[in-house]
Amino acid sequence: MSPGTQTALALGTIACDTPVSKSQRIWISRNGNYGTTNVFKKGTTAQVSASVSGTDALSVTVTASSDTGVNVPTNWDAVANNTSTSDSAGFTITVRSTTTGASQAASVKFVATGVDDNNGPLSREVALPVAWSTASCITNTPPQVSVTGVANGGTYAFGAVPEIGCAVTDGEDSSPSAYPVISPANGSIGQHTVTCSYTDTGGLSRTASATYTVAAATPTIDLTCADATYDGTTHGCSAIVNGVGGTPLAGATATITYNKSTTDAGTITAKANYTGTGNYGAATEATKSYTIGAAT
To answer: Which of 8, 70, 75, 223 could make an S-S bridge to 272, C-beta 3.0–4.6 Å?
Structure first.
């Protein structure tokens, strides 16, 4: 096996906790007498795998390409020793170190597995040393971010949604803060999502979100009726529909019904209703009784 002209991978000094990736191709080289048990069989495919070992192996990962098979030429029995296949397997070697060090190292071992000319199992391997130094690692913990005011999955009446905010703490930053982003931002009834995001001075980011529902508010009705004396005219009632905070709801009109004529003398019961629209649902029915006294 052969990593080509690459006998070692020297990365120099890399930044702390920052991945550095390099591509690596692996070929199979002819080395030995064909027909023995140390040369891959012509016309076959050997599969290549990779593993990492060494003092700093935890900082190194090797990712294979979609095709790790190397095709052995059909004239493999006729080529000279030290000849490499035209086909190769591809890998990506990534180093990500979180420990400061002036001299760090690992070894990537590539193993090709296939069959010899007698169809017996055959494997060959090659090791590629990897060396690097890691610049100073400043301790940085990620921020903690949460949504305040509303609970994920909560439901709140229109006009009564709690004040929404973001809570942020960070071990290294002083006075971290974030502004809540609400979508959709119109505050009308329906589902809304609030998102809080923060990136600390060390570049670490965290995001929290909560989805809540704004339900239609229930308006109230102020029904006003006054006693009167029969005079042949109508003596009806008036009604005001109030929204959040008791403020009259613009454009809202209650429907008032009576159990009898509002002209004749007697006791009259009035009922006021509002079916609701937009951000408001139906109001609770308001009822009042009043009297039209007989004329003297």
So the answer is: 223
Q: What is the pTM of this model?
A: 0.49
Dihedral-angle region of residue 91 (phi above 0 means left; psi in -120 to 50 means alpha; beta otherwise): beta
Q: Which residues of 90-124 are buried (b: 16+ CB within 10 A; e: fewer)?
A: ebebebbbeeebeebbbbbebbbebbbbeeeebeb
- Separation of alpha carbons 131 and 107, rounded Å: 9
Amino acid at residue number 134: T
Q: Are 197 and 146 in contact (CB under 8 A)?
A: no
Question: Residue 222 and residue 252: Cα distance in Å, rounded?
Answer: 12
pLDDT tens per residue, range 219-245: 999 999 999 999 999 999 999 999 998
- According to DSSP, residue 185 is labeled -
Q: Quick check: 104 and 129 in contact, CB under 8 A?
A: no
Question: Using one digit for the tens of pLDDT, what is the confidence trace for 183-219?
Answer: 998 788 999 999 999 999 889 999 999 999 999 999 9
Sign of CA dihedral 246, 248, 251, 255: positive
Q: Is the peptide bond before 129 cis (omega within 30 degrees of 0)?
A: no
Helix or strand or coil: residue 224? strand
Q: Residues in the chain, how many?
A: 296
